[in-house]
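Hi, here's the filled form for the chain we discussed.

Project: internal
Contact: R.S.
Residues: 189
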Amino acid sequence: MKREILEKNKINNKSRIVSGYCWEWPKDNRSKSEYHDIRIEEYDFGMSWNLDNTSTWAIDEESIHEAGCIHTCQGLEFDYVGVIIGDDLRFENGEVITDHTKRAKSDQSLRGIKKMLKEEPEKAEKVADQIIRNTYRTLMTRGQKGCYVYCTDKLLEGYLKTRLNRVKYYKEVNHGDELVAEEKGNYDS
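And the returned structure, exactly as it came back:
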């Protein structure tokens, strides 16, 4: 995925890698691109989060070597985007599930969730679920021409591949761009 995004970016500097917030962003390393916050050991992959020494991450040419998050790319569009889906979104028992405990402690979008879990656990689980699903929906729609996806959960990877194959099948059968949404899902935001 990284190699593809680097190649696409050579065209016009409009391709980036983004990720769900499952990896910490330590304050003392926020200006060091050589420090890799995001690590995927099985592929010897490492990448730093976007550095905090710029407000123009999306267009800085060197930022191709840094991963953006929901906070740095929401509202922006790229030609191509590579999305790293972390352990907070998985496929288990025939369903896509979320797990807020796999998010980084430095993730501000889930601020206050621990207190809410004690006071209103059902509401807290629902809020966290919506935030996580919304995060990935937003990240995956940043690419106008294409989206590459890497999943840390191999079952989720397999599930997404079957969904893509189903969409391809429906396009072939219907001779057009008719897409099929998942049966289950309520996206209020």
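Let me know if anything looks off before we file it.
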